[in-house]
Amino acid sequence: MRPSGRKLDEMRAVSVETGFTKHAEGSALIKMGDTHVLCTATIEDRVPPFIKGSGLGWVTAEYGMLPRATNTRMRREAASGKQGGRTVEIQRLIGRALRAGVDRSALGERQITVDCDVLQADGGTRCASITGGWIALRLAVNKLMKAGDVVSDPLVDPVAAISCGIYAGQPVLDLDYPEDSEAGVDGNFIMTGSGKLIEIQMSAEGSTYTRDQMNQLMDLAEKGVGELAEIQKSVTA
């Protein structure tokens, strides 16, 4: 029934290559099916002015897509002189999602910026960015801990995200682009590895959904995030 032939509760194949770039304190190339995102984490000994002197750290994110990440070329946002609304919304989502798994007191007064660059898009780029972004963040924090710059681990729980939706009347896990473009309902579920919710973005696309269907999607999301959290732990151990 699904265009990819996957089962309703089956994710796309996931692979992660850590240490993908030479200079970043943490980096990971995450592939979820044909969606490929390069995530890098940069540590800086500074924080935004609004928390300076508080002793708290900060985690933020930036997001972008290469011009040919999609089937037609997109103009670089730098060429237009400003970021689009979608880009701003997604990078804010990534930042607040990752901060939900951070003990900012333990991080100390420093900032970690996670850059998520979409090399190829086939649906679920924000979810892949959050999942891969946490891996890059974990690797960067590992370096801080190894150097003795932080005393206790500031990452309290893995953070991952997965899309779920109703396609052809059935709840499905991890929508690719053909499903996402045709789904009657789709959503992004951001959770911790221990199953706690951080954020849900749900919308009906020309259809409606019931409470029972919402619960089915939640069950699928829990399964998917659980699998992603295990992958995150295995590649950063």
TrEMBL record:
Nucleotide-binding in keyword set: no
Self-association state and partner proteins as the record states: Homohexameric ring arranged as a trimer of dimers.
Entry-linked Gene3D superfamilies: GHMP Kinase, N-terminal domain
GO biological process entries: rRNA 3'-end processing; rRNA catabolic process; tRNA processing
Family: Belongs to the RNase PH family.
Ranges where the Exoribonuclease phosphorolytic domain occurs: 10-140, 157-224
Protein name: Ribonuclease PH
PROSITE patterns in the cross-refs: RIBONUCLEASE_PH
Entry keyword annotation includes tRNA processing: yes
